[in-house]
Every structure is written in structure tokens, then in C-alpha cells.
Design a protein that fits this description.
The complex is a heterodimer of chains A (about 550) and B (about 180).
Chain A: H1 3-13, E1 18-21, H2 28-34, E2 40-43, H3 47-61, E3 65-69, H4 73-76, H5 79-87, E4 92-98, H6 114-118, E5 124-127, H7 134-146, E6 152-158, H8 159-162, H9 187-199, E7 203-207, H10 209-213, H11 217-227, E8 231-233, E9 248-251, H12 258-266, E10 269-273, H13 279-282, E11 293-298, E12 312-315, H14 318-332, H15 340-352, H16 367-378, E13 383-386, H17 390-398, E14 407-408, H18 419-429, E15 435-440, H19 450-456, E16 462-467, H20 472-481, H21 497-503, E17 507-511, H22 517-526, E18 531-536
Parallel strand pairs in A: 1-2, 1-3, 3-4, 4-6, 5-6, 7-8, 7-10, 8-9, 10-11, 11-12, 13-14, 13-15, 15-16, 16-18, 17-18
Helix pairs in contact in A: 1-2, 1-7, 3-5, 3-18, 9-14, 11-14, 16-17, 16-22
Chain B: E1 25-33, H1 38-49, E2 55-60, E3 66-74, H2 80-88, E4 93-99, E5 104-115, H3 120-130, E6 134-138, E7 142-149, H4 151-165, E8 166-171, E9 175-178
Helix pairs in contact in B: 3-4
The chains are: A alpha/beta (about 550), B alpha+beta (about 180).
């Protein structure tokens, strides 16, 4: 059969149900194979939309997402989603077309050095050299994307090779001598960690996106419950621990709660699980958690002691490690009353510094109120996908995530334009769930063309645009740190999102009154098909509290 | 205190791996798959993470499906621990050894083109002999000398011939092999 037909067999063997892509000259053979392969293909309007859709699908389902693009501009349009997938450890396989081999290196039409361009942003990549390689490479790509620390893998397929005839036989095993992720944590280290937790008087569990990736939320909760430990999560870890738990401190970091950040600052032991001590977490690193010793559990050994030296490093799969840590900790029969003073301190912070905002005296919708209304209208049960900016932080602060894979956003790269296409992918992967996008008037415009994809494919996402007519987070920084010199942050009231939504085949609505907002939101959610809601909110509201860049966590403002 | 025993633990006893800068030059011997782009991945990783490569050599091994990359990195400048961990993340990297100087044979080849007229010629030839070098080109106005050895020997020879009029010097960068029966 043709190599591209073998490609389809490989995708099916990997359990691929859907791919997101856009055809072009160099991947015509692949698209000919898609014609009757029996794999669902969602035709996106821009390759970046396809890449983020594959990410959203992967994040919501835990499966490997697949994005397809042609050579040259098709491939370069994937650069942002590939980088995003690397930064947030999202398992996605990117299949790019390439010009035929005789044109390689000649600056042929739609030729780009895709492998070279993407080398620093992939977990791994392959340039197909011979049609016979394709099945093995495809399975290796899925294996690498899915296992260890998940990430993006790219396969570049020259068009002539994709048409080559090969005898196809299913590939049953892959051999990658240089790729052997550590899964089981070192047992002695796990015991040492249990003993450290038993000895700690001011412990904090600090959990990141690795808990979500490892499907370890239940194990994390079990460990936290067993020791009655306080828990905070990073932006990427939200949903890894239920926000309704009395042990929940809220998110930590730049826009985290004071309670979470003060707890890190005062802790004598921090147990980091699948988190990487990003600068948005630590603030000024030399003054980060000055009294703490660190247990660091991570699947990626290179994260250990990268930013903060670990006292008890444990490399492996968080799910397995936490399960064993639970047993070890229970066996020590530690006295829970040793944490009484610590909990009293935490309770004091909670009472003194709750998340709060001044509600409007009139009908104006405060952005925080909008998120609270969304929580109520969805019963806290939606898959919430955000873009990047103030609305993202307010959603993280106020929605209250109870379960993993219900909060999807771009954390590491901070990609504006991520939300709508990622939600599209999440909705395709979870057709029974309510998928809501919270976006800003800036972010939404960066991949707004995918509204047409949603309409055409009947992907019923509900898009709530928090419209303040500004690139709000940049405006906030200009207000706070640049003397209110608002340089190029005002978007005005353009475009008209209601008309734009209707032009794309979606329902367009506009909400401006807080007294009817909850009801209006319920109505929007009950409307069939994709819906876009332009929610007019307070124009110059700031996201607080905040650790100013370069400041220590204990000096939060707002 | 021994990790993994049942003895209770005091948090004060815990130490982190501090002082990640070792302060000496490290020779990393890296066994990689012999595939296109592997060297670019290694070089790109160093560029992206801001690590400096002092020397780099690449060559075939006894098994044609593998190549050997020998890298020297200044441990005073770069965190060797991070360098090796990041290298290990490359799928085509099979094995990395941070070679201990005492149990390693290190060699480098260097060519020196030196201006050599009159009396200087015989002096240079004598020096070359002392360093167990070889004359590989000999013209009326210059000689090309080949010297192999550890980095320090090459550097010593450079200092000695420089006053004669060093026209150019080329060095291969070090390769290194562990002593004893076991593979590097």
C-alpha cells in the first residue's frame, strides 16, 4: 500500500479518533488517504487553530492529540502550538508535509526547514528518509509524546516519499535505547520523604500540572488527607486537588492567594509534585520559601534542582510515587496535632486575606463577578478553557476547580489565541460535556477564525468574552509599573463580536447588566450550537493580589 | 543518616545538592545514534540553555550505528548536572559519561604552522622531537608540525613555538577514553 495508507493504519492502531488539520500542496497524498480512512478530520481555518485544538483535545481527554499541516507556511504556523505543547507538557503528534526530496534545500515553493525551525521546541522530531520508515516512526512518535514527561513530537513527511509503495505490517514494538523514562520512584527516597513529612511542623504540598498529566489527583488527595496537609496548586495544577476541600489554600504564585504564598514563605517543608518552580511561582528566587526543605517529585530528572535545590529528589511517575508515599506515611503513624499551630496560622491568613473585590454599586459587571456567575450557571461542572491575560487569572482564582482536566489553559508559554481552538478540541474529545471558553477581547481575536470551524462542525462551545476594550493585563502593568502611560493597549469596541459571531454561523449575544447576568448566562448555555457572548465588564479593573515581578512572595500587593 | 531506614528524621539534617558549579573542566563522552541532525540537536541544546562548549569532537565508533561525541565544558561556568540531564533528554543520546581525569586517557591532535628560516629551523625540529611531534610539511620559509597529547602538552608546545612566529594553529579538540577493560 502507499505509505500514507500505512500512516492511516498506524493512526488507527494508536487509537486516534480525530485529527485537526488543513491540507496543502505537500500533504495532498495524506489527504487523499484521509478521504476514506474512517478517521474523523476537523478542517480548521488556520494551522495554529489545529495545533491548539489538538492540545485542547489532549488536555481534556489525556490522549495524544494529532495536528496536520502542509509544508512551509503550514508548518511554520504550527510553531506556536508546538512551543505551547512543550512548555505545558502536552502530548501532541504534529504531522507536517514537506516538499519532495529532490527539492529539499533548493528553496522550493513552500519549502521551509521544518525540522530545523522546530528543533528547540519539540520533545523529539523525525524527518522521514524512506517510505519504509513511516510505520515505525509513527509509533515511536506516539510513544515518545505520551510517555515520560509528555510533549510534542513532529514528523516531517516529504510528499514523494508519502506516495511510496510499502508492504505494511503492524508494528508491535518500538525500540528506543536512548529513551527510557524513569517510572518507579526510588523506594528509599520515598521513605525518606514520608519521614520528612512526618517530621514537618509547617508542611505544604505544592502540586503542578504533572499531577494532572500523571492522572494522580486521587493519590494526591489521599496523601493530603492522610497527613492533613495544606495543599496549593500552580495554574497548571488546578483541579488536581478539590477547591472545596478545607485543606485547599488556593492557587499560589504571582496572582495566587496570600494564604498560599504566605504558607510557602513560612513552610519548613515543601513537597513539590509535578511542578517546576517557575518564576511566576517563586517571585524573587533568592527569597523564595527561605525556611523550607524541599521534596521534589517529578518525571523529568532535569527539573530536579534546576531552579531550587531539592533535598529529597524523587524521579518517576507521580501516581505511583504518591501511592507508595501514602503507605509509607501511614506506617509512621505521625501525630497530626503537631500541625495544629500551623493550621491556626493558615486560618488567620485566610480570615485576614480572603480573595476579594469591590463589587459595583450599579449594574456594571465586575470581571470577578462574571466568573462567579459562570461557576453558578455551570454548577462548577464545565470544562473551562481560558485564553491568556487578566480573565485567565480571575478564572483561576474564582471558578473553584474540583476535578482534573476541567481547567485548560496556556500556562508556560502564555499563548493568546489558545482558548477558542483548545476548547474546540476539548469539545470534540468530550462531546457530552459543557465546554466554556473564557477569553478577553484581545485574546479571542487571535484565533477567532475557528468560530467558523465550530459552526461548520457543530462544535457547541460557549464563548464568554470578558470585554473591557483593553489588552487588560498589559494595561494593568502599564498602570502599576509604567506610570499609567497606556501605550498601545486600547482595542476600543472593535470588532462587533455579536455580528462577527453571526457572520461565522454562531449565535451572538451581548450582556451588560449584572442583575440579569446569571440568568443570561444560563440562557446562553442552553442555546444549542456554538455561542459567543460579548460580556461588557469594568474597563480598568486590576487582577489582585499580585507579587510584583522580582519581589518576594511575602510582599504581595493589592 | 541513612535514607530508607526507620529511624526518625530531623529536617535540619537534610542537605540539598548545592554548589552545582564544580569549578573544573569536565570531559563528557556521549554515545549517540548515528542519525542526521544529532549534532545539531546537541549544539542547539547548548545554545538554548546558554551552556558553553569549550571543545567538541565527533567521530564514528566501532559500531557504525553509533557515533561518539566528546565535549569539554567548564564546570566553573555551567552547571554540569543540568548539562548532562538536559543532554539525556535528547532521544538520540544513548549514554553520557562525565569522565574522571584520573581514570581517563585524553588526547588531542594539533597542527602548528611556524615561520622557520635560518637557525630557527633546526631549533624547531629539536623542540618537535622533545614533544614527540612530527614534521608534516617543510618549505623554505615554514614548517608544519604535528603534536598529539593531552591539552596541557599542546598548550605548552604552543607557548614554546609562538616566539618563532606562529602563523597558524589548528586543534581537533579532545577525545577521551576510560582506562581499563570496561567500555567508556
Amino acid at each position: 500500500m502507499r505509505a500514507v495508507d500505512a500512516l492511516m493504519e498506524c493512526l488507527k492502531a494508536e487509537g486516534v479518533e480525530v485529527v485537526f488539520g488543513l491540507p496543502g500542496g505537500a500533504n495532498l497524498p495524506t489527504y487523499d488517504a484521509f478521504y476514506d480512512a474512517g478517521i474523523r478530520h476537523v478542517l480548521v481555518r488556520h494551522e495554529a487553530g489545529g495545533g491548539h485544538a489538538a492540545e485542547g483535545y489532549a488536555k481534556a481527554t489525556g490522549k495524544v492529540g494529532v495536528a496536520v499541516a502542509t509544508s512551509g507556511p503550514g508548518a511554520t504556523n504550527l510553531v506556536t502550538p508546538i512551543t505551547d505543547a512543550l512548555m505545558d507538557s502536552v502530548p501532541v503528534v504534529f504531522l507536517t508535509g514537506q516538499v519532495r526530496t529532490e527539492l529539499l534545500g533548493t528553496d522550493g515553493f513552500q519549502e521551509a526547514d521544518t525540522i530545523g525551525i522546530t528543533m528547540p521546541i519539540v520533545k523529539h522530531s523525525y524527518m522521514i528518509q524512506h517510505p519504509l520508515e513511516l510505520p515505525r516512526v509513527l509509533h515511536e512518535a506516539f510513544h515518545i509524546a505520551r510517555t515520560g514527561r509528555p510533549g510534542p513530537v513532529l514528523v516531517d513527511l516529504p510528499t514523494d516519499l508519502s506516495r511510496g509503495e510499502i508492504p505494511y505490517e503492524p508494528v508491535t514494538e518500538t525500540s528506543l535505547p536512548g529513551y527510557q523514562p524513569t517510572i518507579e520512584g526510588n523506594h528509599k527516597q520515598i521513605r525518606q520523604a514520608a519521614k520528612a513529612l512526618a517530621a514537618a511542623r509547617r508542611p505544604v504540598i505544592y502540586a503542578g500540572g504533572g499531577v494532572i498529566n500523571a492522572n494522580a489527583a486521587a493519590e494526591l488527595t489521599a496523601v493530603a488527607d492522610a497527613g492533613h496537609f495544606p495543599v496549593t496548586c500552580t495554574l497548571m495544577g488546578l483541579g488536581g486537588f478539590p477547591a472545596s476541600s478545607p485543606q485547599w489554600l488556593g492557587m499560589l504564585g504571582m496572582h495566587g492567594t496570600r494564604t498560599a504564598n504566605y504558607a510557602m514563605d513560612g513552610a519548613d517543608l515543601i513537597c513539590a509534585v509535578g511542578a517546576r518552580f517557575d518564576d511566576r511561582i517563586t517571585g524573587k528566587i533568592s527569597e523564595f520559601a527561605p525556611h523550607a526543605k524541599f521534596i521534589h517529585i517529578d518525571i523529568d530528572p532535569a527539573e530536579i534542582s534546576k531552579n531550587v535545590p531539592a533535598h529529597i529528589p524523587i524521579v518517576g511517575d507521580a501516581k505511583r510515587i504518591l501511592a507508595r508515599l501514602l503507605d509509607e506515611y501511614r506506617a509512621l503513624e505521625a501525630d497530626p496535632s503537631r500541625l495544629d499551630a500551623w493550621w491556626a496560622q493558615i486560618q488567620q491568613w485566610r480570615e485576614e486575606f480572603p480573595l476579594r473585590y469591590a463589587d459595583s454599586a450599579d449594574n456594571e459587571i465586575k470581571p470577578q463577578f462574571m466568573i462567579e456567575a459562570l461557576h453558578e450557571a455551570t454548577g462548577g461542572e464545565a470544562i473551562v478553557v481560558s485564553d491568556v491575560g487578566q480573565h485567565q487569572m480571575w478564572t483561576a482564582q474564582y471558578y473553584g476547580f474540583e476535578k482534573p482536566r476541567r481547567w485548560i489553559n496556556s500556562g508556560g508559554l502564555g499563548t493568546m489565541g489558545f482558548g477558542l481552538p483548545a476548547a474546540m478540541g476539548a469539545q470534540v474529545g468530550c462531546p457530552e460535556d459543557l465546554v466554556c471558553v473564557i477569553s478577553g477581547d484581545g485574546s479571542i481575536q487571535m484565533n477567532i477564525q475557528e468560530l467558523a470551524t465550530c459552526a461548520q462542525n457543530e462544535i457547541p462551545v460557549k464563548v464568554f468574552i470578558m470585554n473591557n476594550g483593553y489588552l487588560g493585563m498589559v494595561r494593568q502593568w502599564q498602570e502599576l509599573f509604567w506610570d499609567r502611560r497606556y501605550s498601545q493597549v486600547e482595542t476600543g469596541q472593535f470588532p462587533d463580536f455579536v455580528k462577527l459571531a453571526e457572520a461565522c454561523g454562531c449565535t451572538g449575544l451581548r450582556f451588560e447588566d449584572k442583575t440579569t447576568l446569571l440568568e443570561d448566562m444560563r440562557r446562553a448555555i442552553a442555546t444549542p450550537g456554538p455561542v459567543v457572548v460579548d460580556v461588557r465588564v469594568t474597563r480598568e479593573e486590576n487582577t489582585y493580589p499580585m507579587i510584583a515581578p522580582g519581589s518576594p512572595a511575602r510582599e504581595m500587593v493589592g | 543518616m541513612e535514607a530508607g531506614t526507620n529511624a526518625p528524621l530531623s529536617l535540619e539534617e537534610l542537605d540539598a545538592a548545592v554548589g552545582l558549579r564544580t569549578g573544573r573542566t569536565h570531559v563528557l563522552s556521549i554515545l549517540v545514534e548515528n542519525r542526521p541532525g544529532v549534532l545539531t540537536r546537541i549544539a542547539g541544546l547548548f545554545a538554548r540553555r546558554g551552556f558553553n562548549i569549550e571543545t567538541l569532537t565527533v567521530g564514528p565508533t566501532a559500531d557504525e550505528s553509533f557515533s561518539r561525541v566528546t565535549l569539554t565544558v567548564d564546570g566553573a561556568v555551567d552547571p554540569i548536572d543540568q548539562v548532562t540531564k538536559q543532554l539525556h533528554k535528547l532521544v538520540n543520546v544513548i549514554k553520557i559519561r562525565d569522565l574522571e581525569p584520573d581514570t581517563t586517557v585524553q588526547r588531542e591532535l594539533a597542527l602548528f604552522k611556524v615561520a622557520a628560516e635560518g637557525a630557527a629551523r633546526s631549533e624547531l625540529l629539536e623542540l618537535c622531537e622533545v614533544f614527540r611531534g612530527r614534521v608534516v610539511d617543510f618549505t623554505k620559509r615554514s614548517v608544519v608540525l604535528e603534536v598529539t597529547g593531552a591539552k596541557r602538552k599542546i598548550e605548552a608546545f604552543e607557548q614554546i613555538v609562538r616566539p618563532y612566529g606562529l602563523i597558524e594553529m589548528m586543534r581537533t579538540g579532545e577525545i577521551a577514553m576510560s582506562r581499563g577493560r570496561a567500555e567508556t
